[in-house]
Structure formats: C-alpha cells, structure tokens
Amino acid sequence: MKWNCIVADRETLLDAHQFTIFLASRFDEFDDIRHAVHDKITSFNSHGFALKAVNLNDRQVSADSPITRSLGYVRESDVMILLLGDTYGSVPKGYDQSYTHLEYEEACKDENGVDVLVFCIGRSYADGKISYSDDTRLAAWQRDIQDNQTIGFYQPTQTPDEIAKDIFQRLLENLYELSLGKIYAEQGEEEAILEVAEAEEDESSFGGKNEIEYLSKLILGKPTNMLESWNLDTNSTLSAMAAEWVVDAAKAKSLGNYRIAAQNLQRALEYKPLNWDINIDLAELYAKRGSRKRLFEAKELALQASRIAESQQLSYHAAYGYIIASEASRKLEDKETALAYSQRAMQTMGDRVFVSAYIEHARNLLLADRKQESLDYLKTVLRISTAKFRTVLRDPFFNPVRNDINKMIRQYKVLLIEKISPIIDNERLLLTLMANPRQPLSVDVGQSLQSIVETARTSLRNQRGLAAALFGKAETLHRQLETSVNNIANNVFRLPENIRGLEIVRWQKKEGDIVTHGDTLFVYRWKPGGDPKEWQYSGNSVVRIYRILNKSGIANQDNRNLCTFVPENYVIPQPTQYDQYCQRLEQMKLKLKLLQEATEVLQRRRTAVTLGSIFLMLAALLLMVMQQATSMAFFSLFIGTMLLIYGFKYSGYRTLRLKHFVSDAQINRRWLFATKEETKTLIAEEVKRREEQLADAAQFRTQVSESLRQFIRLLSRQPNKLFPFGSRFSQESGKLLRVAKDDDNITIMPVLKDFPKWLGVDYDNDYPTYWLGRITTRPSDRQTVLSLRGFFDEA
Hints:
The protein is built from 23 helices and 20 strands. By secondary structure, it is an alpha+beta fold.
C-alpha cells in the first residue's frame, strides 16, 4: 500500500486500500508454514480492511528477472514477514547475497518504509537464541538481524499450524499500530454489544496524548498547550524553527510517511531538546515503527520526556513517558524492564485514572504470566467506560485471553443491571409520589450494554422532570400545612366571659368528631350537685374537634379554654408513640408536683398544730403558777391569752404562708391552677406539633427528600458533571457562580434560589445547595442546573 499523492489524509487512505504483506524465505525450507500464513492473511477481513499476501512461490510467469520482480514487490509492501532458517539460500547471478537476503536489505531501506517481522525457525535457534551458522554469509546476516531486529523464535517441535497462528498474531499486532487502531481483532458477539455503547463519548479522548489533554483540562482547567512553559514560544527564533519542523512532521505522519516525520522531529529536537511534545512524539514514533536500534532510542527519549514532565509536576505527561518506555522495552523482549516502567507509570498517577497506563500494565502482566492480575486491570478499564474498553477489544495482543474478556463482559452486564436497578426503582418511587400512572423503564440481561446504559440515562432524565414537579407539589403542601398551623391558635372554643364558672360532667363529643349547629358538645352543671344541662354548639360552620382541653372539672374565667377545632376537611394525624409518651410523662410530672404540694401542706398543718398546742400548754401552766399570786392574776391571764392568739396566728402563716388554713377545696383549686397553666402551653405545643408533622405528614416530605437524595447520588456518578470552583462556598441567591463542565470551558451561572431548608439535602456538611441557571447568548437557551453538595449536574 503506497501513496504517491500527498493530498489525502492517512485515515482516508486507510479506508480505501488494503495492506500488502510480503512473505520472504527459502521456498523449500518453509513451504508448509508459508502456505498456512498465506491462507490466514488472505482470509482476514476487518471492517473493510483486507490483507494481501505476496508469495512469490506462486509459479506466475513474468518478463522481469526473478530478483527484479521480487524487489519490486518488496518496495510496494507494507510489512515483510521473514522466515530465517538453517540455510542461506541460492544467490542470483550478478549478486553476492541470496534472494531472501536481498529482499530483506531492500525492505530495511528507510525510503521504502517497510516494517520487517523476523522469525527464526530451525535447529540453529532451538534454545531461543541464535547459534551462528558455519556458513560465513549466513552467520554475518544472523549477526546483522540480531543487532537491528526484534526476533521471534520457534522450536523445531512446533507444528506448522502452531507457528503460522503465532506469526499471524504478531502480524495483527503490528498492523494494529500501523493502521492507528483501525485494523483489530476479529469482532465477536460481545464486542458487537460494546461497539455502540456510550456512543456519545468521544473515543478520541481516551488513550495516548489525546487522553492526556482531556484529563489535564479537567485537572488544570485548561489544556496543556496553554501553559507558557510548555508550549513552543514562537517569539523565540529557536522555538519558531522547531515549531516549523513539528508542523511538517505532523503532516508527514498523517500521510503515513513515518521516515520523513522522524527526520523532521529529529531536527526540531535539535532546537528544543527539553520540549516534552517533541521528545514524546519521536519516542512514540520509534516505539511503534522503529527497528531494534530505534527502540533503544525510543526508550531514552520517553524517559527524558518523563523527567521533563516531573520537573513541572505534570503527572499524566510523566506517566505517558513511562508508558512509551514500557512499550519499547516490551518490543525489545525485556519483559522485566517493561513491567517496571508500566508500574512506574501507575505510581506516578497515584489515585488518578489513566486508561493508557492500566492497559499497558495489563499487557506486561500478561507477558509475565500473571493472567489474573492482568484481567483485574482490564476489569478496571471496563468499569471506567465501555468506550475506553474498546481499545482492549481491538488490540490483537489480548487475543490469547479473548474468552476470559468475553466472560468478563457478560459478568459486567449483570453487575451493570444490579447498579442500574436502584435508578429504575427510584423512578418508580417518584412516579408513585406524583400519582403518575406511567410505568417506569426496565432493564434485563437480554438487552445490549448500550441499551442498558441508555435506559438508565433516560430514567435519570425522566427523574429530573419528576423531581422538579415534586418540589412544586411538596412546597404547595408545605404552605398548606403552615396555613393550618397559623389557624390553630384562633380556633379555640372558650367559656364565654359572662359566665363565672361551671362544672363539666362529661363530653358528648370526642376528639376527631364532626360538630354541626345544634350538636351537644358536653353535659355541665352550674354547681356541684346541681341539675345537669347540655351545652350545644351555636356556630354555623361545620368543624372537627381537634383537642379537648378540659375533659372534666371546673371551668371558669381563669380556665376558659375548653377545646380546639379545625375545619371539617382537615385530617387529624394520629399522635406518634413518642408524642403519647411525652403526654404521659408530663401528666406524671404534674401529678408528682401536686402530690408534693399536698404533702407539704399536711406537714405544715401538723407543725402548726404542734406549736399551737405548746403555746396553750405554756399559757395554762402560767395561769396555774400565777394563781398563787392574786396581784399577778390579771397580768398572767393577759399573757396567756396573747400567747394563745400568737400560736394560732403562727400556725396560719406556716400553712402555705397564708392568713388562713388551707382547705381541701383550696387544694382542688391548686389542681385547677396547674391545669390552667398546662392549657396555656397547649396552643404553643400544638403549633410545634404541626411543625414537626411537616417533616413526616403522610411521610410525603420524607419520601420526597429521600428520593431526591437517591436521585442526586445516582446522578453524581454519571458523566458530564459540572465541577465548581472554590468560590461556591460564599455565593448566595442572586450572585454569579463560576463552574466548569468536564467537556466544556468555564462558564458563568447565576444562583437563582436556595433549596427549601426543610428538604434537608445538605447531608452532613454545611455546603450550600442552589438552583443554578446557565447564562447563554439566547434567553431561550437558558438552562437550569441542579446543584447539590459540590456536584453541579445539568438538569
């Protein structure tokens, strides 16, 4: 596949041509292997990319000499497969080298740009290394190949089919890089499921330098080419010259002329040896298209790029340098070094996600016979995104574990359904709360991954609308309940002011009963022992008794509140067990207080009687003594009388510090006074009780809050989140807020309003929660963004 025209880009050319593979070896020595490889090549087709095998052992007649015809085919090929055996082969007339050796030399010329894959088969390579031939010509060629090529060795015991299968696998890996990932492993059922999954994701954002730019934009808020210390400063003469070579290299690379691309990058590197982009581009080019010598250079350039990035604390760029160094080491058959570099790339990233690092490390683990660890890293890539995982499916390197990967995908589908089920359940809950008859979406294992993911996203879009409607419904209910709370204080039935008092015998109506005009509320009498009478409701409106404040006892102007009532259509919630417990506790406290007061009264009575008796005894004793002296009789009588009066007066003061003794009737009035004090707090308690009911009235608000929490938690794990800057902590309604979406530039939004405080969606933090509106050029494009705890998700 050669192009003489330089006006089309490489991808267009790739879509329109086939790849030509030249098979080079002695005909008789590897006839079975050549035919097996030839059949695999010609039968392969991947998404319109056909492979053509050039096998000169086809006995076709040509006017050209055999060597001229052979070298012409080499120059027109994309890849040469060289099978090197134990014999050197025949030498054409007029040449010093064999046919196969001449074909190899032609392929290695830079101007031809042919990739060479060398495979050594025979007794001379039984131990996985070259035993140099006694033939000096073959020995010299073997040394040249060992110095400049990466070699694949096969044991003499392996069958031609086994060898051909492995050679074809190596060929696919080479073509995968040559075609920029467009030629890849045979597509199976599982890949067909993944092929369109998450189609809206830009696949070019994942892998290689594109992924670095994508992730750096998220971390830094701008692409790396906006960093002055990173970009080529065209105001500098050296930088301007380097920039010209870089541009020309990019053009050559896009046209598939990697030799010119490498030459231009080498010139650019002379002017800017410490530029990360130039170092990494040249390293990447050598690692994917270079000879063995170029692979060593690729490793050094990649490590240099990593050191440059580390000096500027750019972890993604540093990690990518280690990835290229790992790739070069792997192709040099240095498995341990390759694994060490990919491990270094993982360590450089820390807790951050870098798909290219995961995939490269999985390759090296697979080469190190650590299959399960490799699959674990591939599973991580799958969890990150199915779009990113397509890189794994397309890479022929992972063909040996294809069955394990397919099994992993099936298990992931089951896991994905388990993760998505709560989303569907939450939609069902929102529909129930809205009394919406529509059936929620559903998922099952029969759906493709793309269908399952799209179902979840559709459900989230539906829930956004339902959540907005629920906010309106919940706020309406909130206002209604607040109105009913405000009306409770005015709906109290009191004893008329012209009635001094009465005794309630029993209530004819109970709490929750409906009362109409003329209904008997309770039976009463004017005084104890009097005739019972019926008190009838004289109001014209139909009401419902909410709470009876004076169940039985004396009602007077000091204790006027009899009951509270609410409109007829008001549903009275049943008191919770906690409310009932609080009521019983207050009653017990009141009874205990009254019992203590009664005990104190009795104690004071006993003290007063005792002191009075003592004074009387002293008075009597004084009179008896004074009878001895007639002159003192009158004085003694006076003193005794005064002591007696003082004793009774002291007793009265001791009894509750009043001017008279406390009777049982007065104790009853104490009970009534306590009831009055309790009544005074009932209205406030009812208002407080209604406010508490706002949190769980029919459990509606609680369900709204929980469903919205679940909705936001699910939403926050979806892509395309809006990430706020630190200024969000100081913003209030009416302010402007800077936010950045992961695939957009920074934008400005106004804070429209806060969430209702009763919703309680601030979790355990004090972060503010806002409704945000996106500022756009056209008013009709204004969007609302739901904001919660630092996540700004487009609604």
